Every structure is written in C-alpha cells, then in structure tokens.
Amino acid sequence: MRPRFSKDGMHGSSSRGKHRAGLFLFEGRSTRSVVFRSEMISRFISQRIGFYWLLILPSVVFLLVIFLYPISLILVRSFLDPSLTFTHYLQFFTNPVYFKVFLITFKISFTVTLLCLILGYPIAYLLSRASDRIRNYLMILVLIPFWTSLLVRNYAWMAFLGREGVLNKILLGLGIVGSPLKLLHTTFAVNVGMVHMMLPFMILALFSVMKGIDLGLLKAAASLGAGSFQTFIRVYFPLTLPGVAAGSLLVFIFSLGFFITPALLGGRGDMMISTLIEAQVSELLNWGFGSVLAVILLIMTLILFYFYNRFLGLDRIWGEAS
User: Fold this and answer.
1) pLDDT tens-digit profile of 217-272?
2) What is the per-residue DSSP string for 34-62?
3) Are 176 and 30 members of one domain?
4) Which of 31, 51, 77 is a domain's end point?
5) What one-character DSSP code corresponds to residue 80?
6) Is the same domain home to 40 and 181?
7) C-beta separation of 152 from 158 below 8 A
8) Domain of 122: which CATH number?
C-alpha cells in the first residue's frame, strides 16, 4: 500500500525545514559575529600592548644599560685575573677577615634597622592620627633630610661628635665628663649617622600602612572591653606589620650597601663591605676581588628578597597587600 500524506503533514515538514534553515543561518551569522568580535578585540589588545611596549622601551633600555650591563661586567670580572680563575673566591672563603667584615656589616645594618623601627613607629603613628594641617608640617620635617646633601649631613655629624665638637663641649661644660669622649670614628657614630639617613624611609613605609587602617576596628575593640594596651597589641600592631616588614626590608637593604657614612664616621674596626670594596678597587686596584665582594653582597641581598617575597610578598612594600 502507498503511504498517504496529508496536506497538513507536508506543510508542517516544510515549516520545520524552513525553521531549521533559518536557525542554521542565524547560528552561522552569530558565529561569524563572535569570530569578528574576537578578532577585533585581539587586534585592539595587540595594538595597545605594542603601544605600551613603545612607552616603556626607553626605560627598559635605560635599565639594561645602567644596571644589567655593569652587574654582568662585575660578574665576569670576578672570574678573570686576567684569565678564567677561582682564586678570588678561594681568597674570600679561606680568609676569616672577610667573614668578619660581612658580620660587622650585617650587625650594623640590623642595629640601624631596629633603631629606625623604634624611633620611626611613634612618629608614623603621630602622622597618621594628626589633622591634615599638622600632618603637612610634620611631613615637611620628615622630608627635610632628603633636601640636604648626604655628604653635608655626614660632615655635620663629624662636627657634632668630634673631640672638639658640640656634644663634647656641652658635656664638659655641664661637668658630666672630665675629658672629651671619643665619639667619632666609632660604631656609635656609624649607627647614629646611618639612623639619621635611613629614618625617613622607615617613617614613610609605616605611615603608608597606618594611614589606611580603619579606626573603627579600634573603637570596636574598645567597646568589647579591651584596654588601650590590648587594643594596640592585638588589633593595631598586627595591622601595621606590613609596614613594619616593608620599612625594615628597605632600611636593611640600603644599610648593607651604605658607603659614605661608614667611611666618614667609622673607624678601622667598623669597616663595612662597601668600604672594603672601595679599598680593593681604588687603593689596591684589585678589580677581581672587589668584584667578588660585590657579587657575594648582591647574592645575599637577593636571598633576603627571596625570603621576604616567600613569606610576606614584595607587594607589601608598595602597600598593595591588605
């Protein structure tokens, strides 16, 4: 028997066919539209990235020429005398005097960092809680050292701490001491001078964090029965730890390579690694061993950065971490 087809059936099948054809046509157009949009977005991003690269290209070239090339040259020179050799590295690791210099460097850097933290924390707290008008005046006082030459500040400390300096004259005039004290060319003078140079960095790092702390948390702690000391220890101080860590890292790293202050205010017993490098290069003309000392100092600095980034994160230096 022949199958029977109704007009309604034939009309329904043709309608479904047209619907499917229209659906396929719509899907094709939408697919082409998505592809076109993705191509436009990728082209726009590539153009923008290319534009950004053009903007930062001068800075990248500057950094490569000013920093990467000298560091690479020092690294190469540490293995040359004038041919390839490890003599300079063996000289460093077999002579305990150079280990002592590194220990003195780390000891002074740690002391300076601790003193800057103790002195800078209350000042940063005062800046964060003061009114805008008073804060502006206090910030000017903090930034004044940056407006004065580093060499001038060191010579000022030499005039203040010398045997015939201002401090000894005051002590002798008050009858506190019978003879001038030896304050210059000592570890004390180095610590005082370096704290004076590094303190603004610690204050600014702490202030950037303290300024963003919500004071409502302190009020909430007080409403729950916490005293002022408990509120500070359990609430406020933990919130400032990113600033403490960032300021401590900056001051410690800067102190490791500090040269002018130890050279002018310190003595032979306070020789830091930067002073030793300068003596090897300028006085003894031993570029190879001076390069070894610089490379080892750089490696130690990078190790500090690694551990800081591992446990705290370098983004805390710029206040990006909460």
Assistant:
1) 878 888 888 788 888 888 888 889 888 988 998 899 889 888 888 888 888 777 88
2) HHHHHHHHHHHHHHHHHHHHHHHHHHHHH
3) no
4) 77
5) B
6) no
7) no
8) 1.10.3720.10
Q: Which of 196, 201, 274, 207 is closest to 240 using CA atoms?
A: 207
Are 61 and 181 within one domain?
A: no
State how far Cα 147 lies from the chain centre: 21
Of 47, 77, 107, the position where a domain reaches its end is 77
Show the domain range for 218: 85-316
How many structural domains compose the chain? 2
Of 50-54, 72-76, 181-185, 308-312, which gets the smallest average pLDDT?
50-54
The Cα diameter of the chain in Å comes to 136
Rounded Cα distance, 164 and 171, in Å: 11
- pTM, two decimal places: 0.75
Whether residue 203 has pLDDT greater than 90: yes
Domain membership of residue 3 (yes or no) is no
DSSP, collapsed to helix, strand or coil, labels residue 184 as coil
The DSSP call for residue 229 is: H
88: Cβ contacts below 8 Å, ≥ 6 apart: 78, 79, 81, 288, 289, 291, 292
C-alpha dist (Å) from residue 146 to 90, 192, 196? 41, 17, 11
> How far is CA 2 from each of CA 10, 11, 12, 264, rounded to the nearest angstrom?
16, 19, 20, 115
Contact 259, 278 (CB under 8 A): yes
- Residues 34 and 151 both lie in one domain: no
Do residues 94 and 164 share a domain? yes
User: Which ranges in the chain belong to alpha helices (H)?
Assistant: 7-63, 69-77, 87-94, 96-129, 132-143, 150-161, 166-173, 187-210, 215-223, 228-231, 237-239, 241-256, 260-265, 273-278, 287-311
